[in-house]
Design a protein that fits this description.
Shape: globular
Number of helices: 11
Strand order of the largest sheet: 29-30-32-31-33-34-35-36
Radius of gyration: 26 Å
Distance between the termini: 44 Å
């Protein structure tokens, strides 16, 4: 599946490849002027394709006025069933024109029903605003309602076609409440509450062949790492960790095409699996060697016979390629790539062990410019902060490296992915320990690679934007330019905003952030000291602020007030407000234009 059009005029096509002859002639199905977002097999004969349709409402005249209001652009999502042989297209929820007009998102398949090849389970909104599960015939598009949620329901997980976990969400979209129900019962029981975006610690993995027992990813009370474990839907108890790795949180669970659990993914030197089928371990090791042990080899599809595999391969110099592997035929065939790039023009990435000033060790990724000559350094602290960087593809990194600059991405203490204890080492240490880890990584790289210490810049998004600003405060002699994208400038004000906006029972999201940033009632002066806006006069380098006007994660007022403080201190600052966009989620064309501005500022600073 690919888009052969442009961002302004998309055109989706599907290329079918014969598994017995993967290098032979492909059959193309033309979907027309739509954006095809995802695809999967509904059965052996039909494909399910999620498409996005963008349109604009008609302009209209205000009541009692001659003034016309411009139309509003909107995007709706649908699922179509496409015949692999004839290319015939069936719109699911066929004939339900009122529902199709009233609902923008009807593109969610929640169960492929492997034992029922003619039907799938999908969710759709009802006229009363509640989400419901429908059994949908993929040959005709006809539907039958199975179950209705409540006003807050946004998803279900199923076992053998029966809903067993129900996910409700608060109005703000920050906290989900998960309910469980064994097959055959009618009453839903509260299982747990879990954050949606901020360090989530619970996820569905797979059903098992035992009714009432499923697999989930969770961090149990008193345990350091998040692992896959069994969940008993009747007693709501979880079993012991399966295939746990010290100091590594599970990334995802791996399933075959029938939905059977195969293993757990972790990030070590690269993407690695703990298989529950020992024969797959040497197979994945061999695939890693095929790609020079330099890429993350994801097994995206595995057949029931463990003979044919689809691979998604990413790496520091590989933005994404897909391969078909036939174990019996001993053949690996490239079937598609995200971008065609000249590898000689890309930077090489290495993993560093960084010794911090207090004797700890953190991991960092350093990308050299093509040729590897010593030169300027750009530091990219990640967002979150309880996420982590990996050795996979990063467009910003390669654009910066292409300018002849080295790029450093440290996984400072407080990052996610390394277990709870590692993350906790950053709690209430914004502005000091977390910054110190970044500074120690910079110092080590400058010393070991003989880089130009007089030409260092820092750039980041979200928490990374905060770290960039705080870096400019703490080390004015080091950083020659600072770029903060959707960043936090004032910690007390950010916490006060979280407190006002939090609609969860017991202020659970606010409590989450006060544990990590700090409680204003306990360490208020320290939070003020760790706020770049309140120390704007200490910044020396030029600052570029970028923020989506509709950001609901970090409000744009954070960047506006940071700009005002820098202006009041007579500092060099520019704020770019991105209209109609949120938390750095703008389209590729906008990101390209912004990257041009980032590069221009850094070039000027390094001149």
């Amino acid at each position: 599946m690919q888009d052969i059009g442009t961002e302004e005029a998309p055109h989706g096509v599907i290329d079918l490849i014969e598994a017995d002859d993967p290098e032979g002639q492909r059959k193309r199905i033309d979907l027309g002027d739509i954006t095809a977002e995802a695809m999967e097999w509904g059965n052996d004969d039909r494909l399910l394709v999620r498409v996005a349709l963008t349109a604009t409402t008609d302009s209209r005249t205000r009541p009692g006025s001659n003034r016309r209001i411009a139309g509003v652009e909107y995007t709706s999502r649908r699922v179509v069933s496409v015949g692999a042989d004839r290319g015939d297209v069936v719109l699911l929820f066929q004939g339900q024109r009122r529902r199709l007009r009233a609902t923008l998102d009807m593109g969610r398949v929640i169960d492929l029903l492997p034992n029922d090849p003619d039907n799938v389970l999908m969710t759709a909104w009802e006229s009363d605003g509640r989400l419901a599960i429908h059994r949908v015939n993929i040959n005709t598009g006809s539907t039958e309602i199975i179950e209705r949620g409540n006003i807050n329901t946004f998803f279900w997980n199923t076992q053998n076609g029966m809903p067993v976990l129900r996910h409700d969400i608060n109005a703000r979209g920050t906290m989900e409440t998960v309910f469980a129900r064994p097959p055959g019962e009618t009453e839903w029981k509260l299982l747990r509450r879990s954050r949606v975006a901020d360090a989530p610690d619970f996820a569905w993995i797979a059903a098992t062949d035992r009714p009432g027992t499923v697999l989930v990813s969770a961090r149990a009370e008193g345990e350091d790492t998040e692992c896959i474990r069994e969940l008993d839907l009747g007693s709501l108890t979880m079993g012991p960790a399966m295939s746990a790795r010290p100091g590594r949180d599970v990334v995802y669970g791996l399933k075959d095409t029938a939905g059977k659990y195969v293993g757990a993914a972790y990030y070590g030197a690269r993407l690695e699996y703990e298989f529950n089928e020992p024969a797959l371990t040497p197979l994945h090791a061999g695939l890693n060697r095929f790609f020079d042990d330099d890429c993350d080899v994801h097994l995206t599809d595995i057949d029931a016979q463990r003979n044919r595999f689809m691979l998604r391969v990413t790496g520091p110099a590989e933005p994404g390629a897909w391969f078909f592997y036939d174990r019996t035929a001993r053949a690996i065939v490239n079937v598609g790539a995200a971008l065609e790039l000249d590898i000689e023009r890309l930077g090489v990435t290495e993993t560093l062990a960084v010794r911090t000033r207090d004797g700890a060790e953190i991991e960092a990724y350093l990308t050299a410019p093509p040729g590897g000559r010593p030169g300027p350094l750009v530091v990219l602290p990640h967002g979150g902060p309880e996420v982590r960087d990996t050795r996979s593809w990063d467009t910003q990194v390669q654009i910066l490296a292409a300018q002849g600059w080295w790029v450093l991405r440290p996984n400072f203490r407080g990052s996610g992915g390394y277990g709870l204890a590692f993350a906790q080492q950053g709690w209430t240490r914004w502005g000091d320990r977390m910054q110190e880890d970044v500074e120690d990584a910079v110092a080590q790289v400058i010393a070991t690679k003989s880089l130009d210490a007089s030409r260092v810049g820092i750039m980041g998004t979200s928490y990374g934007g905060y770290a960039a600003l705080m870096g400019a405060v703490r080390r004015p002699e080091l950083y020659k330019a600072c770029i903060a994208i959707c960043g936090v400038g004032d910690l007390p004000e950010m916490l006060a905003w979280e407190n006002r906006e939090d609609d969860t029972p017991g202020k659970q999201i606010y409590d989450f952030w006060t544990k990590r940033i700090g409680d204003p009632d306990v360490i208020g002066p320290a939070l003020a000291t760790a706020s770049p806006r309140r120390r704007a006069s200490e910044i020396v380098c030029p600052v570029l602020l970028v923020h989506g006007v509709d950001d609901t994660i970090v409000p744009v007022i954070q960047s506006r007030r940071m700009r005002d403080a820098l202006r009041a201190a007579d500092k060099s600052v520019e704020l770019i407000e991105v209209e109609d966009q949120g938390h750095a989620d703008w389209p590729a064309s906008r990101e390209k234009a912004l990257m041009t501005r980032y590069v221009a500022l850094l070039k000027q600073a390094f001149a």
